[in-house]
C-alpha cells in the first residue's frame, strides 16, 4: 500500500520534504520507474514552495496523478483536471486549508512534523488512483 512507502520515506532517515515523500513513495508503490531528475523535481515544492503556499503533499500527489494519467500533455487528458480537482476537494474537506503555513499551525508538531497531511494525501491519492482505474477497466 502507498501509505507504507510514505511512512518509509517520511522517516527522518531519508530527510525528504512532503512533496518528495509522496513522489518517492508512489514511484516505488506503482513501479513508475522515475529517474533521479524526475524525483528531484519535487524538491522545490516543500514548505509550500518555500513560502508557505500550497502544501507539498498536495503538489506531490498532483504530480503523481499527472505521471500516471497523462500520456504526453495535460490538454490531451480529459481526466487530469477532474482528478486534480477531486484530490484537492477531498484534501480540503479534511483540513479546510490548502496552504502549508496554515496547515502547520493547526496540524503539525515538531515530533510528527506534517505527517497528518502527508498520510492523508497518500490515502486520498491511492483512493483516487484505484477508483479511476476501476472505472476505466
TrEMBL record:
What are the transmembrane regions? 42-70
Q: Which protein are we looking at?
A: C_GCAxxG_C_C family protein
Source organism superkingdom: Bacteria
Q: Which Pfam families match?
A: C_GCAxxG_C_C
Keywords of the record? Membrane, Transmembrane, Transmembrane helix
Organism for this UniProt entry: Clostridium pasteurianum DSM 525 = ATCC 6013
InterPro entries linked to this entry: CGCAxxGCC_motif, Multihaem_cyt_sf
Write the signal peptide boundaries.
none
